[in-house]
Specification:
Distance between the termini: 39 Å
Helix content: over 70%
Largest sheet: none
């Protein structure tokens, strides 16, 4: 953030992951594989969770934060679209 070229803070990686995950959901929705947003977001969340597990096994800090942000964003989206 300060332009020093140092490592990116984890909160930035989480935000980047959140955006990327929601873009993935949008991309899948545009492909028309499923009509409901929840039906599209569920499998995308599964992929993001699998990626998160792989990065956790490698102890890859920034990528863990990235995937955590993505999973959280999709979970929040699913909560919104499935709540009454």
């Amino acid at each position: 953030i300060d332009g020093s070229g140092g490592p990116t803070p984890f909160f930035v990686k989480r935000a980047e992951g959140a955006r990327a995950a929601l873009v993935d959901v949008r991309r899948e929705r545009r492909r028309g594989a499923e009509l409901s947003l929840a039906g599209v977001a569920g499998p995308v969340l599964g992929r993001w969770r699998a990626d998160l597990r792989r990065w956790q096994e490698r102890d890859a800090g920034p990528w863990i934060a990235y995937c955590e942000g993505g999973c959280a964003a999709i979970e929040a989206l699913l909560e919104e679209v499935t709540s009454d």
